[in-house]
Amino acid sequence: MRTVLTVLRKDLLLELRTFETLPAMILFSVSTFVVFHFALDQSTIAGQLAAGVLTATLLFAGLLGVNRLFVAEREQGGFDGFLLAPVDRSALLVAKAAALFIFLVVLEVVALPAFALLLLGPSLGPPLGGVVVLLVLADLALAVIGTLVSAIAIRTRARDLIGPIIALPLLIPALIATAEGAGPLLAVHGHTFPEGRWLLILALYDLVFALLAYAVFDFLLED
Amino acid sequence: MSSYSRGLRGLTIATVATIAAALALVFFYAPLDADQGFIQKIFYVHVPLAIVSLCGFVLGGLFAVGHLRTGDRRWDMRSYVAIHMSLIFTVGGLITGSIWAKASWGHWWEWSDPTLVSYLIVFLLYATYQPLRFSIEDPERQARYASVFAVVAGAFVPMNFIAVRLSQGFVHPRVLTLTGGRLPGSMQLTFGISLLGIALLFATLWKYELAAKSTRMQLRRLRRAVLGEDAVRPLGRSAAPS
Amino acid sequence: MSTPPPAIELRDLTRRFGERAVLRGVSVTVAEGTTLAVLGANGAGKSTLLRILSTLLRPHAGEVSVLGEPLPRRGFAVRGSIGYLGHEPLLYRDLSGRENLHYHARLHRVSSTRVEELLAAVGMRHRADDPVRTLSQGMVQRLAVCRAVLHQPRLLLLDEPRANLDPGAAAIVAPLIGREAGVTRVLTSHDPAGALTEADTVLGLRDGRCEFVTEPGQVSPTALEGLYR
């Protein structure tokens, strides 16, 4: 646990120093909302369409973060530095997933209001709690799968390309559950809390992949 | 002789015989479906292809577990062949599925069929397997990473089908079925033989490819032993295990 | 009086890259407290050998025993006693020297006072808060040395430690990684003459094979030349 906090602290410190990843993710999502506005040619959107646009945008912005996750380790010898230490190696997985999760939450703190302002028709106030719960579970899925895929991709030659094409199919079920769950929340006179079924699917998905990632991660680090 | 070539002739004969029998049954024995007509017979190809390819992916994942646990690269070879063979079968499955969809509903793709959609997602995932292998140069790391991928993807296959099905549960899906879902006896027999034929085809092709690969490896090892290390040029960057 | 167990014991060590062998049949024993110099041309396998000893790479065949523990099985048991200084400094360029060392200190469970001690010992206290990317190569190398000896390792693995160090800086780090440190060391060098003066045993590598293992005084000039042909 201490190791996790040490690595996490180092990653957050690095991001604060360089601001390489988070501003790009935020800017990308806001620009994407603008693109969607013109592509869909509607002044406001609601319901399932809105849910789809929001989920897809957050997903692609998240993938930007996924790509950058292990870059510093790869280029500046961070892997070696960590592997030489007498620590539990799975701590790297937990720390990186936690860092990615935090980035995603910060992203959404900015992107959700931007979405409500630029694209969403109905008010985001009443369903906000439900949307947040849904997004937290989705962020967990993206964090776990993103970290795993990033760890695989970082030691390949075409690392920026391999990551997203592996991550997207793996994330589609989580994407489906998030978008379907958010649809009724973003509709005009919509519900305020998502159907339990979607939360259950997301939670189970998170659990299974977290366990799977924990089991295989060591094999990615050893040489 | 490589151990994979043992029994290969017998297996090949069995495969050819079973497929011939299946074809005979499909064309001369199985009844014509009232709604979908002759084109429905593609069901006898599509569903076995789909079942065998999905089992092949899961099998690839199991072989990969063997590789990760023992470090023996032969498990990786088995896993690689199983997966890339399944991928080819999946392409066949998607094409035949599309033909069947056209026959059933008039268009080449149908989003509301959860099985077909899940199948597409699985295809998209495994289509990245060879690019992934190709982009890792160190052969040992390539094998290890490919095995990690195969394990995660193999676990993903059943989860994906469950998730997609759950998400479409409340809208009655237009599912590719026949006569309300229950197959009459004659169709069952035909289907069973077809399934057996396709499964045997998979097993035969799998064995063939492994026999070829392992023989090639043995040959290279012998040449290196006889002619010296430097006489044998190393294989270039490849997606296949060596 | 019984002799203490050797710090390093290699028997027939082999490491492959695909079909090619990078190290083959390397055998050597290093007694505790002594220095082994590994000589050889580029690509002979020196860095690979060091990385195997550091537990970063696994041996593919043969037996490796470091500080009494067999590798790779007991790698986690010895990691805390090994200090590795490779070609890369293993420092994050956007963090300061002090922050980098504190990070490694926490990973190795070392107190922060040790960080300050080392910074003073290498004369880097005045630049310890500047990001590593603003430092000269010599300064970065000094910080890398600090990182390697932070946890007071019993075994030092030094891959061309003199690189990037002017004589003044080399003198500064000598108490930490030189003979005076008094720990078992394995070092590689492109400069045979310099390495021979420091070593108790010399291992010559050529194309991954062990050409000779002798005392420095008994290395014949032709054998030495043969390594680099």
Which features does this protein show?
heterotrimer; A: 223 residues; mainly alpha; 9 helices; 78% helix; 0% strand; B: 242 residues; 2 domains; 7 helices; globular
Write the layout of secondary structure elements.
The complex is a heterotrimer of chains A (223), B (242) and C (229).
Chain A: H1 2-18, H2 22-40, H3 47-68, H4 71-75, H5 78-83, H6 90-118, H7 128-153, H8 159-182, H9 196-221
Helix pairs in contact in A: 1-6, 2-3, 2-6, 3-6, 3-7, 3-8, 6-7, 7-8, 7-9, 8-9
Chain B: H1 8-29, H2 43-70, H3 73-105, H4 114-126, H5 129-134, H6 139-167, H7 185-227
Chain C: E1 8-17, E2 20-30, E3 35-39, H1 46-53, E4 61-66, E5 69-71, H2 75-78, E6 82-85, H3 97-107, H4 112-121, H5 137-149, E7 155-159, H6 167-177, E8 184-188, H7 192-198, E9 201-206, E10 209-214, H8 221-228
Parallel strand pairs in C: 3-8, 3-9, 6-7, 7-8
Antiparallel strand pairs in C: 1-2, 1-4, 4-5, 9-10
Helix pairs in contact in C: 3-4, 3-5, 5-6
Helix/strand order of chain C, N-terminal first: EEEHEEHEHHHEHEHEEH
How much β-strand is present in the residues of chain C?
A: 25-35%
| CA distance, first residue to last residue of chain A | 24 Å
Helical content of chain A stands at over 70%
- Using a beta-carbon cutoff below 8 angstroms, give the protein chain pair with the largest interface and the number of residues from each chain: A-B, 29 and 29 residues
Q: What kind of sheet is the major sheet of chain A?
A: none
Description:
The complex is a heterotrimer of chains A (223), B (242) and C (229). With 223 residues, chain A is mainly α. Chain A has one domain. Chain A contains nine helices and no strands. The longest helix of chain A is centred in the middle third of the chain and has 29 residues. Chain A starts with a helix and ends with a helix. The mean pLDDT of chain A is 92. Chain B folds into two domains: 71 residues; 128 residues. Helix content of chain B is 72%, strand content 0%. Chain B has seven helices and no strands. The model of chain B has no long low-confidence stretch (mean pLDDT 84). Chain C contains eight helices and ten strands. Chain C has a six-stranded mixed sheet with strand order 6-7-8-3-9-10, sandwiched between helices. In chain C, strand 7, helix 6 and strand 8 form a beta-alpha-beta unit. In chain C, helix 3 crosses helix 4 and helix 3 runs parallel beside helix 5. The longest helix of chain C is centred in the middle third of the chain and has 13 residues. Chain C starts with 7 loop residues before the first strand and ends with a helix. In chain C, 43% of the residues are buried. The chains are: A mainly alpha (223), B mainly alpha (242), C alpha/beta (229). Chains in contact: A-B, A-C, B-C. At the A-B interface, helix 8 and helix 9 of A face helix 4 and helix 6 of B.
